[in-house]
Records
---
Amino acid sequence: MILLTVLFLCIISTYSASVKGHTTGPSLNNDKLYKFAYSAEVYVDRVKASLQKSAGYRISSDVDVNLLWRNPDNDDDQLVKITIRDVQVENVNERPAAKNIFKGKSTEKIIGKEYLQALQRPIVLELVRGKVKNFYSYQNEPVFTQNIKRGLASLFQLQLHSGTAHEVDISGKCDTTYHVRQDQVTKIKALDSCEIEKQGFNSHNRILDVSTKATSATIYVLEDSFIKSIKAEENYVLLLNSRRKSGAKIVSKQRLELKSVQAGPGLIAGKQVASVIKTLDSSYVAMPLVAEPVKSECKKCPSIVDAVTFAQTPESLEAVLEFLDFKDASTSTLQERFLYACGFASHPSEMLLKSLTAKFKGDIANEEIRETLVIVMGALIRKLCDREGCKLPAVVEAKRLILSRLEKAKKDDNVRMYLLALKNALLPEAIPLLLKYAESEEGPISNVAATALQRYDPSFLTKEVKETMNRIYHQNRKVHEKTVRTTAAAIILNSNPSYMEVKNILLSIGELPLEMNKYMLSMIQDILHFEMPSSKTVRQVLKDMRAHNYDRFSKMGSSSAYSGYITRGPDVSSTYSLDILYSGSGILRRSNMNIRIFDRNAELHASQVVIEAQGLESIIAATPDEGEENLDSFAGMSAILFDVQLRPVTFFQGYGDLMSKMFSATGDPINVVKGLILLTDYSQEIQLQSGPRASAEFLGGLAIDISGGMEFSLWYRESKTNVKNRVAMFIAGNAEVDSFFVKTGMETTLEVETTLDFISTVQFSQYPFLVCMQMDRVESPFRRYVTKYESLPSGRRYTARRGKAELLAGNEYPLHQENSNMCRKVFGTKSDSSSNWF
């Protein structure tokens, strides 16, 4: 009895999950002609805009369907003839006559006589259990008309029971799910699973890239075992990850509705499909149901010099390398601009790295260009490895060259050059070398190696790395400079530190040089204030009174570290961090400003500007700190821009150079980087299931000018550093459906200009000396525009444009309260003539 009950429930379940009376596919009646009304519509607009105001067009027609042949041995094997008639092209939304580009034009004039005739030639489908086994059409027809027919033919493919299937249609081989309820079938196609030839590329970093979401649903209503109506809708939504309010959507709709059933032609006799097709028309050939790619023309060919490099094609690379002569020092400015454009390339090729490696092996007149070249090679290695290209021959060769030459290098300048390349490449196999140079060397070399290790993801920082960093910080083997020790501490605290590692760092505060005491204390407080990952462990350690007491946490000094938010938004947020470390005599050792952008899944190191100085105590007859007695006088600036380390700039090197520049100083800042950077570079071709092909392009460029300077006044015993970041950003997006006879689309643009200044002023006439840090952003113009358009090859065009311009208020970013109090003292005690430097 129980067995019978279970069997009965299974039968009921099977019945309810299939169309009544059928378990395979739809079936046509013999000698009948099914007359349908068909329409295919495309819409292009902003993501949240109403379709009633979108740009687009509609192709409508009558469609005749009749059964040609049924397999005598299998009723579910059918040949069906489909004919498109009376084609019309019109606006997808009603427009006044003056704005209707199709007004007064016949379909033949819009599409063209040849294309219209091709579109109205019949196609034949072999349907086996509801699936298209063969698609028959005429050869040498225009690709566009064939794809329109493929889009219509794909609608006739369905199954009459619930479940999933891997189906081939115009979109490719796709995962498809069917939900069946009585005489209604819903087909959901997972477009991201479709296997089809894809054309396009995206940006290297996810934050600078474009996200795409695609959906497809088709609803069938059946009557008398065949189709009564079909409604299909396909949506593509494209969003800028950095500003999800900006984007585009492309919507494709298809409708097929049965109007009447009439007497039709009889069946063709035959046992084999091939013989039936030959009898019908020997010109028919079996063709793939998957869409045929349409060759697209260059839409926005580069027209400026910088864009030649950003075009990232073999032809553009060959042209620019032929133009630039690296043996000629007089063109070094252009050479450097080209190299940085390569470093910021969104999708670099193996050929680009191979070409630069060959240039590096050859003669280069300017040593700074040589240094820039190998640093950029490091950036390209990382980008290619991130795209699973680490085993490409050019990547293997470039890695081998940098690692082998580093180990053979004798001069400090060469060692530093290869270390900077590794700082960009971030190769796991380079970590042992970086550890060796960080622990055993001194000065800039040790510092570059340590900061290179700081850029690695914490997952690469093994037990050996952390042990070495602990030895450096606690000086277990040798005395190290403050800059290297504080970098080692930062690596430890940012890589899931253990309880004892944090405790030992906290216990060291109080035993360090004066300003390092204050700096480390400020770093710990910043971890707690900003809720960094290690804050939980730090709080646990602070419960121990030996680590957390007044004596340890009341150390005097002017060094500091502080982090805060620039913006916090639903899409992305950006943070800044400012830290500044002084020597015991009040002279700057290092100021470090970082800006990071992140979302829920990715992070981008947008910029870092570091100003470093050493060996300047002799200027004011002060005593150097421990471990820094033998350092040469030096000051310089280093920058990271969009995850790419740039070539550092030297203000002065050696005491003689220092004196010369002090007495000839103009106070003008020194430029670190200036030029155009391609941030967002996204292009995708999208095959719509109705037949047309859409495209989406987003380009984002940045004009940037980063400069910095360092000034001293011996008379007023005051120093000042100034880092100025001037940027102008432009983003343009274009979503378009190009059907050869009509184009419809939407362009969106964003423009913003701003300047971010970081100024630190130090008065070292007393101790603790007075330090004021300021971070300001000026008023920023912000403009955005949206243009929707429809156009014919004849030049007739409809355009709708709207935009908004506004002025974003300037802002002085708040640092910690102690800094605010210090700034009041600095600017309250400065005399009116204190700006008279030297």
---
Amino acid sequence: MNTFLGFGREHIERHYRKTGQCVYLHLKRHLRQKVPGASGGALPKRRNAKLFLDLEISSDLNSDDFEYEDEAKLVIFPDHYEISLPNIEELPALVTIACDALLSAKSPYRKQEPDSWEEELQASKHAKTLVQLDNGVRIPPSGWKCSRCDLRENLWLNLSDGSVLCGKWFFDGSGGNGHAVEHYRDTGYPLAVKLGTITPDGADVYSFDEEEPVLDPHIAKHLAHFGIDMLQMQVTENGLRDNDIKPRVSEWEVIQEAGVKLKPMYGPGYTGMKNLGNSCYLNAVMQAIFSIPEFQRAYVGNLPRIFDYSPLDPTQDFNTQMAKLGHGLLSGQYSKPPMKSELIEQVMKEEHKPQHNGISPRMFKAFISKGHPEFSSNRQQDAQEFFLHLINLVERNPVGSENPSDVFRFLVEERTQCCQSRKVRYTDRVDYIMQLPVAMEAATNKDELIAYELKRREAEAARRPLPELVRAKIPFSACLQAFSEPSNVEDFWSSALQAKSAGVKTSRFASFPEYLVVQIKKFTFGLDWIPKKLDVSIDMPDFLDITHLRARGLQPGEEELPDIAPPIVIPDDPKDHTTNHFVESLDIDESSVMQLAEMGFPLEACRKAVYYTGNLGAEVAFNWIIAHMEEPDFAEPLVISAFGEGASSGAAALGAVGLDNQPPEEMVAIIISMGFQRNLAIQALKATNNNLERALEWIFSHPDPEEESDPALDTMDMENNANANILAETGSEGPRIKDGPGRYELFGFISHMGTSTMSGHYVCHLRKEGRWVIYNDLRVCASERPPKDLGYIYFYHRIPS
């Protein structure tokens, strides 16, 4: 009655011992048989005055014969003294008022119902009379960038003049530089649509004048003005979308194994999750995550310790919520077979306890999506993006000495070659997902595809039923070959030629993870702006060997590109933030930038992080972001002075030497965060004149550094002991990479049904105890025909050598 937190019976004693709070409100709902009427039947339906709690009512039992009754009482610890409510005589007035307010309060989760946010949206007063300029602007289906800065995310299209501008910067580090709002203040053009949210059903529209999200009944017309065609995706007369009549129905049936009688599975590890409204992407990912032993040990195995040391408000603690969800999925308490013959007898004796059929991850979803512009909504999301978002939160919230996300992390070696000079550069970056392109040109049934396309067009022209779908069959080997082939590098600047040149990049594995996550890149945009999904069948192997993709490093006869930075162009007005502050010629690893941007950080902050950490990879740059995200210029564009020194607070990361002749603390922290000891980091920086890249090379070439006793060093260690304890999560064994053989076995996959990641449904298949199991939200059954060829994300486990 002090914190207003809710606890189950098994956790109430722990909370009392931990906090000393002794007054609790005990709420209970009973299931009783209705009193029969004079005619022998149940009394006619009426409003149940015995229900005062805003809870969901189970529809499993016949409401004509049974009814619920709520009970509330105060419990005083440690004696468990109970006071039934209402009780005005024994309780102080303040306690009575507080109890009444709690009992009559609406559930906070009512606000998260799927349709609640839609009801609040109103048609904009500007939609009907919106003026659109005839300026010839046409918006391409991809490659957008803010017209006032370099941001390529959170972009909004002004529906009056077609300007593409970035949105506001949010407290969680996402968003943009607010140029869309500035443009409205300058022009008065009121409506904008968020790029990337346009679907056949509409789009996210914001009214700057009304200062709220709105509906635009004429959105298709307004988008068509700029060449964005939604008409082809509109609903036809028979209620189905074009190109959606045959393919999608077939896909839904195959992936969900419709038409086959599936045997339900019960017990630990076979617990379903309720769909909270387009939350199937979360359900599928979390089922796969908690099938991995490392995550089971980290959260469920450490559950007592996590609960004992959780903060006073556990609803806002990531590890507590992960442990709670993992326990719900793995304990078996919420996955019990339904009672049969004993059901009626138990109901008659008022001993019936409703069987739990799965769990409802409301609190987990509310916390993990808090502050995120996409996951906090009730719209469908990309399971791959949510997976990376989850890994980011795991990284930022360590639990014990073991970081379970280590099992996914691997190093990618990128070899960039100047086509003219033939010189090369090798760089490493951290990644968690292997993204495989779909090699459509390698389809083995091209003749069937051509014949099907001709029949489909003829059927559409004659208004006949479409022919049976023919799906492209792509060999997995072709997709793997496409992954390993060189790709062109846009705007490549050759340090050997001191000019822009043609360049190619090849990626290889510098290390192999313990668990390999493979994403099939099925989603794209058509030239007509229609989001499309490549409906293909890929023969994904049960056993995968990618040993041949192991990186080899600099080869004999290869010559490295000189370590020369591109020339820097200074704008005439350095205070003008509406133009680029330098030409896109800085040596910045764009792949690391985009990897950080996918985590939700502003693009400019990601560029600065990669630049100031010397292109050492996304993991090192991530630590720079965490250390600087509270600074006021965190999301400002990178500005380089005429002398090549950073204009922001990250200048120390370039190698500036402190007054006490000690290495910059930021550089020390970066090396510590990679798993090295503090004294080794300082020794390496001193030996290399504070050059971060050379310092790392020095560490690897000096596995057993000399022990030195430096009084100044000891003093500095004492002053920064707290910081060192936070950052040094591992010993001196090196970066947290679990390398090993490149041979894997498939144990799970997530499939998507629908036309794009913004719609449709996700299902997860996992191999457990020698057989495949399908997890379709609350429904958990033994799989008879797992559609391994139609998956979107695949999970492989390393085969021990």
---
Amino acid sequence: MPAIRSLPQDRLVDFGDGHQPILLQYRCAKRYYKCKNYDGSPGLNWIEFCVHHEGVLNFAANPKQLILNAVFDAVEGEQFFPVNYQCGSHVDSFLVRACKPALDKFFNRGLKIRVSTGVELHLSVWFNVADNQRNQISPAFVISQVIDRLLGRLEHYHGVHGVLNLSNFSANPYFKHFEVRLSNPGTFHLVCSTINNNDDRRRAIKGFCLAHNQLSDLGALRIFGDIDYGLLDLSGNMLTSAKRLCSDLQRIRAKQLNLANNPLTKSAKYPDCLKPLLGNFEIVDGVPFDKLYKMYTPLNYEIDVECDGVRIDWSNKSRLAQFKDSKDWHAFLIPDPEHEFAKEELFDYFFILVSSELSEFYPCYYKYDGGEHRFLVRDCYDQIEHLVVNCNLEMKIAQLNSNYQRSIAYYLRMNVSTLKQGHVEPKQCIEEALQKRFNAINRVLNLEQFQNTDVLENVHVCLTSARILNSILRMASRKFLGNCVDLRLCNNKILGLNNLRTLSLLNGLQALDLGQNWIDDITAIGALSEVPLKSLRLHGNSLCRKYSLPSAYIRAVKEVCPGLQRLDDVDLSSRPGLTTQKDYLCDPAAYELTGELFLCQFLREFELSDQRINLSRFYTDSSIFTLTCSYDIRRCHPVKPSNELCKRINKYNYFSRNLLKNSRDTCRVHVGGHDIMLVLMQLPEVTHDYVSLQTDVMHYDDQMAIIYVNGVLRDGSDLLLAFSRQFVLKVDANGLGVGKRARSMKIINERFNIMNPSPKQQRDAFKFVELPMDQELSMPVEETVDVKEHKLYIFQEITGLRPKWCTRIVQEEANWDFQLALEQFLRMETANELPDDAFL
């Protein structure tokens, strides 16, 4: 029933922005309070809502937002725009018009609303409090004007041009006199319809940014279906239902979808719940959709390290004991505001503190965010207690050229999340990685750079820890027993193998690769005395530098492994102690450049003038070549040298460039393949002493390589010269070869130096005779397991056959002859001898 009471004072609402003022007059208005129905029709005139909170919300952080949230909840998605919201000490008020569906919702509730704090508030409603006149404020019209402006200035956002930016839409300054919420489905539908009806500008839209709008219902977006967009940003909303999201976006297609900071992303079923949208979007939150599960981390979605869990630092270490039996995730947070340390470097320092006597420690879900390195661990309370109590939550960083150790204090947040379905299980990941790394055909367990295995993206496995290494080898021994004959542990930062009894459990093990690790003393591999190894590789460990003579190195290793037949890929029966290790590779992948692929081939063709012209293929029009000759003929020939000898030396001096004698000597810088070949073709024929060569690959990456080589060469029979050459190689083309993975490199800078040989070089030069090329090539070469494995891989790439068919043709029928295998495949394919299930 209409309420009867003293009338409020009439007033004029003037917005001061050009809109016609609204004159509120209560004499002819009708007031309703605690009613469930009203008389007649509300019409199109203005209606005033009064919210009687009686001051109970005055001490809340934002009473207005609490009331508006309750108001919009009450209208249940109907279109509703509160105008001229006024806050009062006991009563708040606002105006509305043309909102009968929403008005009915309030009366169905008995003109009551409930705020999120649980307080129930009563409403009073004044019908026909003001006439609707032309040029008065119209929220729908203002919204259409704002959208028209935004359509006229589409943005470049997240790499996509033509994005309509509706983020935080309610904060637009044009809405200062009324409330607009896209979280209200009626309002959102009005906005989407307005955009869709603007045919002239709608076609230019390439993406939508709807971030930070409290959206929970995206049904209005369906009118934009069946069009390919570049971006749909829904981050920072209130999307909770995966089923509703997939239904609403069923026909929406975009390259990028942003969902970060929605409740949905913190659910236990995320990201699996998004699978129905797999064909609609390529990238979700910056991660390829097909890799979203692998890249998922609770630190991005489920955990807020600012408030979740209990903080433990140096000031409250005593609270740690209450988490002794916890099975939840705990977060480590290590401050690094300048991002001084990369992930690998950080864990190298951190694991110095981790005890090898306590439980295994597997950092999971590492990320750098907010100036901190963050990762999660669980089921390792004893290690955490050690790091808190014994190490005082400090990470020690050694300083070069100083005995001082820098300390970085860090802190923990305990119980930040429970273990949920889909969370990573380190032991399961490791077992899966072992299975992926085992080649059953060749019986090789290749754990080289084990951390780089695909399934370990979210788990850090530190083989520096003897306990973790022992655990992994124990898993391997259970899975493969005597099937493993070759174990490769190179490039894993292993410190030693002592106290590892699990190696002896691999009773069929014959070869072990420990190259490029951190083993600094022969005593660290004493456990190998129990393993009957035939082949061992230790190259690249610091222990190798402790021996000045190869014979001493071999003797020390054989004391540990007396049955050893091969050491560092050298057959010990060939008396390898005659030569010393003298080459350096900054990256093992550069090894191919120092052999027949480039360096040896280049030097051999340089030796003979009739083959030297072939070197032109290594140069480009912008290549640079310089030659320096500092050879002093009087030092090596105290007796007056012959004229013939002087002429040969002068051929080098003629092209020599010596900036010490002439700082302006620039005319002998040769640029371009044509000019370089003119110089090379005029130099004498020579013979290199390949035993004397020392090679240094100083730089190697996917774009460039720098190779330095020095040694001795002979010009004729009586002129011995020392030389050095430095090549700067740059990638010229990619995607070559059968597998489209090969690349071509060209020389962009070369420096050739001729000098006097040292007394040692003169004494040792040409003591060993190299086999002729034809004889060398005719010698049978036993292919390694790696070569055979690579042949099978390439054969499968070319033919598309299943592994067992590849093995049958390459190994059994062609005896590893690759050309013969391809011919056999073509014959079988032509004769229809290959069934359909032979192909992948």
---
Amino acid sequence: MFIFRFLLLSLMVISIQTFAIIPQNEQNVLRQTIEKKSVPLDISTTFIRAMYPVGEGEKSFNGQNNQEWEIQRESDTRFAIYGENLNNSLLSFTTHAESCIWERKDRIYRLQVNESNPNSHIGELAYITLHLPFYNSTLYLCVTPPDSNRAFHQGNTPLLKLRVTRRALPVWATILFLICLLILSGLFSGLNLGLMSLTPHDLKVIQEAGTANDQKYAKRIYPVRKHGNFLLCTILLGNVLVNSTTTILLDSLISGAMAVACATLAIVIFGEIMPQAICSRHGLKVGSQTVLLTKLFMLLTFPISYPLSKLLDTILGEEVGARYTRDQMGALLKHTTTTDIEDREKIMMTGVLSLKAKKIRGVMTNLEDVFMLEANRIVDDELVLNVYGYGYSRIPVYEGQKNNIIGLVYARDFALPDTDSGKFTVRNIMNFCKHRYGTSITPDDSSYDVFNLFKKEQYHLGVVVEYDNTSEKDPRAKAIGIVTLEDIIEEMIQEEIVDETDVFTDNRRKVRNVLSQAQDFSVFIGHNSNEAISKISAQMKVAIFQFLSTSVEPFKEKYISPNILSLLLNADLYKEYEFNEDEAKSGKTTYIYEYGKAVDYFVLIVNGNAELETGKEKIVSEIGSFYYFGASALYSPDEKIDDLIRSKSNKFRPFTPDFSLRVSETVQILRIRRVHWLAAVRATYFERKQTPNDNASLLDSSGKKVDLLAQELEKVDNVDPVNATGSIAEEQTRQRTSSLALTVASDSGVDYEKILAEQFDKSDITNSNKILSNMTINSERNTPTLTEKRRKQLFRSSTTTAATPPSLTGESPKY
């Protein structure tokens, strides 16, 4: 378009300049006239053969009508005059066609010969600069010889006549008019880009969803823009008109090649480049502000532009706005730069647009990656904890082979059945709940269609099946995976949805969720040789874990990590006290805590009841499960974790109860000594220090998981090496020394252990190798204390000093 306009303007300027150039045929006529040495009507030896304009001045030769020179009034125009005896002759002008006596003008010029060649056909040559006022008639030349007072008429040959013309407009008016034309040219060019680039559909969108100003602008433009071809014809017609007029007016001021160059530069810069650059960015606002002027030009050019627009409508049809496919719309969103839409939002929108093209095959979870339950499996603690540990809310149920999915169960369905009875199977729960799910989804189905199916049927999970056509019977559906509503939504937003209970962030690659809050209670699953531990169900251990980690300060995550705490609760720290009514009637009482007797252990009642005796009045109250005592025996709020890890805080920390807690029926308790608790604190420290950032467990050289708690417990050597298989009744029958105070050995409290060893030696206890380190307080105040192994170690170390563990920082500890 731009090249076409440039060529058109150049042709127009060149066509105008033809007025200033003598055609070739007229040059031949003039040359023949000079060569014939035509003589004027008046006989004289001084005469002019021809005159040509040279150099400066605005001049032209009118070869079509009167064949005369045309010059501008009151402007200097230089001519070359050829003739005979011209030196010092006087040149004047008359409007009479035959005589210089009548109508002679007052402007007289003296000729000075510059060149003279006797052998030349044109004779002498003189130059003269004319500056004439406007005469509304043709001027003829009159020459007065230097030796005469008579003026001789030079005839009416084409080269000896001239006319003085004047401009149609003054120079200042022409310049002002040119400026207005350039502004209109720029306006038409800008509107051509700004308005025509906005389709009526775009304007409707802006009216509904644009800013307040844009909505106002679009509302004003729309009535004009909806007549697309009419507006286009008006703009182009007006643009060509003002550009043509600009060229003509500019030629009246400047002629020649300069006029061509100036017209081209002015129209290109001020009529094309600048307005299009502005309107490409602010076309809506410019079009709104100039809509009245646009309507005016549509009215002025109506006779031409309206028929043309109707012709275009008939040939080309009505104007059609931009149309985009899904892929094109996605690419448009991807490459659109705006501060209003974030990159994350663009990704979501492109995901929604591409949903229809995505097949379920690329969205589903393959069958080998699905956690499922067998229909005939007994619902027990192990199964419930497995379901809880995986963190899935909906679990497929299969029968026989995994590709034969027959139903669905929810994780919450396992809350009510009695897991200890062994009477419930997964099939029983599935048949009772009867959860709905999709059963006829194929891998080639569109994700968009499956999403609509889920919304319509109101379920969240579907089984993806393929049909086996290999047999001669009817095709059999075979499950190859599952797809959930969450899977499809993740494809929409192009991101994994991971909540606080998800164990894996990616089911296919088994990437664990670092921030998952779902605890792994698999450590509680299985059987223990310890009778007391085996009587504590896995669900009870989970309840104990949740209670201690949330309600009892020493067991919160600040001190002990969830992983270490679960291992600690699975150790041999549970005790069962069997209540003997006969012994109770005879006055023998089994104490868990006795008033005024120092201990170093924490107790949590798991099952059963106990009697609490408090105050000087000895008020007795019955307490039950999940009452705990002795938290201050484990820690002090003033102790720092660094001090707990180092050996200087491992010394014996007695807790002297101001109450008594005695057994009133068979009761199960969790008893944790300070050394056990400190071992768990140290294990937590090393776990946090050595565990890699990817939350993977530490492995030894053989690839097995390192049990940090077991290592720390072995160091303190305070976990009972013999399983507590005997009952409390048997323990009460053992011989005890009533003079022994209730004291417990700690990892670094050697002085206390020496005292206990000496007292054992004085009392001549021969059965000390059978005494358990688990303490029991009875009414006779006989206290079992050390194992035989530990007692021998104390005697060997009675004359030595306990070694000080190295500092964690590599420095010597300061006390």
